[in-house]
Amino acid sequence: MEKLLQVEKLETSFTRDKKKTKILHGVNFHINKGEILGLVGESGSGKSITSLSIMKLFKGTSGEINAGQIFFNGEDVTKKSEAEMRKIRGKQIAMIFQEPMTSLNPVMKIGEQLLEPIRLHLGLDDKKAREHAISMLKKVGIPRAEEIMKEYPHQLSGGMRQRVMIAMAISCHPQLLIADEPTTALDVTIQAQILDLLKQLQQNEGMSVLLITHDLGVVAEMCDRVVVMYAGKVVEEADVFELFESPKHPYTQGLIGSVPKLGEKREKLESIKGNVPNPTNLPQGCKFAPRCNHVMDICQQEEPPEISFANGRSCNCWLYQEERRGIGV
User: Fold this and answer.
1) Tell me: the pLDDT tens digits for 207-218?
2) Which of 101, 116, 250, 312 sits most deeply, having the most CB atoms within 10 A of its CB?
């Protein structure tokens, strides 16, 4: 399949009190054209910083990309200026954020916010831009689209605000849609509606989607492939069916094992001991070693290599070192 986005050895850091802290440590993954890629991990694993790095959305923060490349349609966006990125954001790569209430401007009407990217990127006159905005609202299942254009974000429910965000994101027909925890603040029934809408739009528009989530149920339902992140690194990458059928990395095994299964009776759910390490104080060697049930001496001394398997699958774990050598486990 043809790759739309290729992230290579990406390193991103933030500075606080004149001290630079690296958040992403050589992140590698790709997104094919027309697929939904899930980016999974606990809070603090670096998922959202990865998405901000792709969009280069660090204005007003101390964040910066220190190393690596991000190829979009074969062009390295890390080398592009802010003016060049403004032409890409919204038109070629769009993003839906976690909380629509904080993403929408509370003092601007919905119509004004929808029309801004349409005028900027599509160059339509006022009448055609307005018609296009209304059609986008209808496309995402919003009733009373004309009236909604005149309302403010606080007048809408959480689900409706999220639909407005999706309408805004797809209004310029982007090739890549980044959805960062798009259903976190919504109740379960609205979550299902939003996910169904995203999948339907993705299929109809033929766009690629980077779906960032900690919910493995969402991943199983939505994604074609999955990238698992831990402490700013990719630890496993696999086809969604292979990942759930035979997770290789102990962290992935722990994540899947901690999800309750329908019809299964258990006295106690499995859990991963400890917490994601603070990026200012990362352990030596494998970052997951302090929480791992399979830890070996080498895990606490050296970073594990990336082990490649069939079908583009990979895992960063010392358990599979023998398999990498062709001996097999």
Assistant:
1) 999 999 988 989
2) 250
